Each structure stands twice: as structure tokens, then as C-alpha cells.
Amino acid sequence: MAGERALSSRKDARDAVVAARKAFGGWAGATAYNRGQILYRVAEMLEGRKGQFVHEVADAEGLSKNKAAAVVEAAIDRWVWYAGWTDKIAQVTGGANPVAGPYFNLSTPNRPASSRSWPRRTRPSWAWSR
Q1: DSSP secondary structure, 47-91, as one string
Q2: How much of the chain is in helix, strand and coil states, percent to nearest 5?
Q3: What is the pLDDT of residues 61-71, one digit of tens each?
Q4: What is the pTM of this model?
């Protein structure tokens, strides 16, 4: 079988899009920490209903109970993994450097070692006394 037809109407699809658009503003405005809390809560809810999801996956995909349990466990682990990254990704990628200058970005690994020290003309006054 190449695919299954969804058991929904155009109105169902339209309502889903309207709900997603309505929720986007709140989600986009939430802090990374708050988003992580929400994703952790989803993982907790999945964990609490694990037996039901194992049964649903086994029936829907024709898997044995053990394989379905492994699929559900992997899904829960994935939710927890993404929840853990929500408030860390900005620090790891270094996307926002609040200081507008390359001399404060000490985490850039692509610069040669000699350029990682303060450039002579941009040193602050306290750095001249070394």
C-alpha cells in the first residue's frame, strides 16, 4: 500500500490550520525554557499512556508488541531530547552575540590561534598593563 487516505473533511483540515495559526503567536512568544517545559510535559503524557500507544502502533503498523514498544520508547526519548535542547541551542550555536565585535567572540574555532588573542589596537585600557 502506497498510502492511506485520511478520514477527515476539508473543514477538518481548515480547522487544523486555523488552530495552528492561532497557537503560533503564543508559541513564538514563549521563552526557550518554557517551550522545553511544554515538550517535557508532552513526553510525560506519552510515558503515562505508553501502553495505549504501544497497542495503537502495533495495530496500525502491524508490528509485534516488542517492536511497537521500542518504537514508542524511541518516540518518547526523542521528545525528551528535543525538550532538553530548547534552551541550550542558542548557546551551542552562538547565534546571538550581544557584543558587536569579533574580539569578544572567543568561541569561534575557525580563526587561527594567533588571532584569538586581543588585537593590539582594540585592547581595553586594563589589558595594556600585562
Answers
A1: HHTHHHHHHHHHHHHT--HHHHHHHHHHHHHHHHHHHHHTTTHHH
A2: 70, 0, 30
A3: 999 999 999 99
A4: 0.57
